[in-house]
Amino acid sequence: MKTFLIDRYAKGGALRLGDSPEPELRENDVMVQIHAAGVNLLDAKIRDGEFKLILPYRLPLILGNDVAGVVVRVGPRVRGFKPGDEVYARPAQGRIGTFAEFIAMNEADVAMKPKNLTMEEAASVPLVALTAWQVLVERANLKKGQKVLIHAGSGGVGTIAIQLAKYIGATVATTTSTANVDLVRNLGVDVVIDYKKDDFENVLQGYDVVLNSLGKDTLEKSLRVLKPGGKLISISGPPDPEFARQNGSGWLLQQIMRVLSFGIRRKSKRHRVSYSFLFMTANGGQLGQITSLIEAGAIRPVVDRVFPFEKTNEALAYVETGRAKGKVVIAVK
């Protein structure tokens, strides 16, 4: 099968178009013929080697963390899916590889594709929607009437997180550029901070939750908008010791993450708020709940551009510019 893969970690390196064997189908797996795959900044970070300490992949590695397609075969113990089912998923982190013609995934990580989405739209959803769900619903336990600041509201995670938070009944603020103010307003944002004109930390106060996907400066400024007892949850780091424990990292890696996050954890304590790092995980059950929200019209994906499969490198380069509104997708089939 045709795949886009890396042979070694290289910052900014091109993915190689190659031929790879079809993946092995385990007894709890579904084999999916890939119709479309979402492209994420995570793909670039894996290629660059940023996660080689915490995600020890064997090279060569097929990249790709989002998929929509059709089930073509199932393992003998699979009960939830059959050939012909249209599905979507974020594969488990140890089994990524959606920049390809086929992928095998554990059925626990897979959900039925929303009936009201195209394959390309569906492929844009899993990673960012699961991230938003795991931050806002699981980690933050966001409630109706609470206030949440979602940074980078026009990005992949931001566009979904805004809609999920509004569905829950929260008051939502976001940061974005002048060009994307209308986009985030149309998603339901209550307070828009144009970062080219205003400093969010001087405008907002008394927030319950901040979802950070940006750098160190934004992370530290976010402490000022939270009320005592508030939660600062970052998906862009730095990783903390709790994440290291959950990830099964050894003692040395736990100590490294303790040091990396020491500054922000100390400052959080001083502001009487909690800091945590979240690296989303595959979860077909949660994705099934997200499917229900999409089919009910509570959440709609925002897709910026669809590239043909052979232009996967161009798609990844476009994601890296940081200018995409919502998600970028490659059409595989």
From TrEMBL:
Indicate the enzyme's highest-level EC class. Answer: oxidoreductase
Q: Which domain of life is it from?
A: Bacteria
Single GO molecular function: oxidoreductase activity
Instruction: Kindly give the PROSITE patterns that the UniProt entry links to this protein.
Output: QOR_ZETA_CRYSTAL (PS01162)
The upper taxonomy is: Bacteria, Pseudomonadati, Pseudomonadota, Alphaproteobacteria, Hyphomicrobiales
The name of this protein is NADP-dependent oxidoreductase
Q: What organism is recorded for this protein?
A: Rhizobium mayense
Give the E.C. number(s). 1.-.-.-
Enoyl reductase (ER) domain ranges (all copies): 12-330
Q: By its UniProt entry, which SMART domains does this protein fall under?
A: PKS_ER
State the UniProt keywords alphabetically: Oxidoreductase
| InterPro entries (UniProt xref) | ADH-like_N (IPR013154), ER (IPR020843), GroES-like_sf (IPR011032), NAD(P)-bd_dom_sf (IPR036291), Quin_OxRdtase/zeta-crystal_CS (IPR002364), YIM1/Zinc_Alcohol_DH_Fams (IPR050700)
